[in-house]
Amino acid sequence: MRARALALSLVSVVPIVLGVSPAHAEQAAKVEWDDTAWRRVHWPEALVSVGLGASIFVIDALPYPDHATWSGPILFDKDSRSFLKGDERTQHTASTTSDFIFIGMAAWPLVVDNYVVALGVHQNVDVAAQLTLMDMQAFGLAGVFTLGTEHLVGRARPPFSSCGQGLPDSPDAAACSRGDSFRSFYAGHPAAAFTSAGLTCAHHQNLPLYGGGVPDALACAGMVGLATTTGVLRIVADRHWASDVIVGSAVGAGVGYLLPSLLHYRLFQTKKVDTAMKTSFGYVAPMPIMLEKGGGLGLVGVF
């Protein structure tokens, strides 16, 4: 299924690639790495990124909690679940759809922006390499944070909050002893999706990969929208509480956007602004927001 999801996600690359053809790339703002304004990913960092990536597989191979150390809703979790939870068929559809979006979003920065656009369209090996190394840093760190937290916290997913309480509607014993039943905190799909969205926003804010201006702004907005949709679908599928989704989204957005922005693009530097920034759409950052009956993520920026 994941292979099909990846293939379908790549179909959407065609309109973008057609819109950023090599001929158009020559006329648009140049895509180049600016050593006077930005900091490169050095080899020690690259090796750390590889280590983080390997750690993800090691952590995932460790046994997950077989019982809940934290159960039940907090804050607005109960109301959010009552409002968004779907029936059995809707839950299955929401879970499958979130898988498709999750895989497609994970592939987009690496396959589309770095390989197809930076390397293929703009023919800049240097930029493609730097973007890939920054993406590896963010995905590796986000993955270690997410899987490590799932192992340590052991929060019961919403359907399994009554495990061990002897209630009439409690799941069967087999379901209450599965490690997957106690991996609710925090939500991994939104964390990965917002990591991708954050990386997209950071890269397109500083580099006119799609020619600058509106197309690059839309790339950021579109990814944030898809990431938000992923988080909502995980609640509809009854796989996570709303608080799991909000924390996962905030962690992903922070790692995906702030890590490259502060460490490499030097977001708050006082030295001269590079030429690529002049063609960008300004500073944009994801920001958690609280609503009357739930919460979510919005965008705050200076244009």
Describe the structure.
With 303 residues, the protein is mainly α. Helices cover 60% and strands 6% of the residues. The protein contains eleven helices and two strands. It has helices at residues 2-11, 13-19, 22-27, 43-61, 77-84, 88-121, 125-153, 188-206, 214-236, 242-263, 275-278, and strands at 283-291, 294-302. The chain has a two-stranded antiparallel ribbon. Strand 1 and strand 2 (294-302) form a beta hairpin. Helix 6 runs parallel beside helix 8 (188-206), helix 6 runs antiparallel to helix 9 (214-236) and helix 8 packs parallel to helix 10. The longest helix is centred in the middle third of the chain and has 34 residues, at 88-121. It is elongated, with a radius of gyration of 20 Å. The two termini are 40 Å apart.
Chain oligomer state: single chain
Largest sheet: 2 strands, antiparallel
- Give the uncertain stretches in residue-range form: 1-27, 271-281
Secondary structure category: mainly alpha
**What is the H/E order?**
HHHHHHHHHHHEE
Mean pLDDT: 83
- The helix content is 55-70%
- Report, as a whole number of angstroms, the end-to-end distance: 40 Å
Shape: elongated
Q: What is the strand content?
A: 5-15%
Rg (C-alpha, Å): 20 Å
Number of helices: 11
Across the major sheet, the strand order is 1-2
